[in-house]
Write a structure and sequence with these properties.
Helix content is 40%, strand content 15%. The protein contains 9 helices and 9 strands. The protein is globular, with a radius of gyration of 20 Å. It has a 5-stranded antiparallel beta sheet, with helices on one face. A hairpin with a 2-residue loop joins strand 7 and strand 8. By secondary structure, it is of the alpha+beta class.
Length: 320
Amino acid sequence: MAVYTQVADDELAAFLDAYDIGAPVSYKGIAEGVENSNYFLQTERGSFILTLYEKRVDPADLPFFLGLMDHLAARDIACPTPIHARDGEALRTLAGRPAAIISFLQGVSPRRVDIRHCAPLGGALAGMHLAADGFAMARPNALSLAGWRPLFDRCGPRAHEVQNGLAGEIEQELEFLEENWPADLPTGVIHADLFPDNVFFLGDRVSGLIDFYFACNDYFAYDLAICINAWCFEKDGSFNVTKARHMLNAYRAVRPFSAAELAAIPVLLRGGALRFLLTRLHDWLFHPEGALVTPHNPLEYHRKLRFHQGVKRPGELGLE
């Protein structure tokens, strides 16, 4: 979440006239994240999140994202629900941007991931994968293997501004992944961005999964690999085997995890690390002036990628 587009008071009031959620009481920009402009909105009738979709989001994808949240919520997955206006539409225009209001979820994102968070997250991820079955729409993953080289072509020439030699390392990794990316793994709708700040907890229980704006169709195991990368490394860069084992075991207690998926995990972890290295590198180098957002350091995922390059088998990660 972030704020790129400012919303004037009169624009907001006119926008809310289409809804039955009461007049605005307050709204405040949310600085976390990198993709869209987000506001915490308080009206006479409750709390909501107002999202304005920025230029990096294809408007044609928005019915998929909003429809998926409706689909998951109807199947008892704790996720935001789009608020539909009186005309039945969830997607409108505000300040020149496509915009939507979604429900506000109770809970707190973990500032420090403990082992106790990892099993509930694994179970919640598997539950989401199963609940998404039957969703009528599909969206290819634009930030999987086929999308990485075009992204590198844009930011690679300036990668030396972040670290000398980085472009060469990325090029070598791209070549490896293009030759070794797995095929024919179980596929469905994945979240693709389930970082700790996109998961709410009440105590040790997952109370909400949010920010579905990278959701797409891809390998279920790739989604788990993204979570392992995001949740199972410590601040000092070390990999926590116990966290990863708890996450995987809780996941497969809900959705069976095949031998082929497990065998592919080392390569999927490398792909997940490269994906976020590239997108963070892009955002670091092409940061919009005046945006109320701090881009993430891409070198965090460079370090994770280097770790995974030394792993050949899932057992080296404590995953059996």
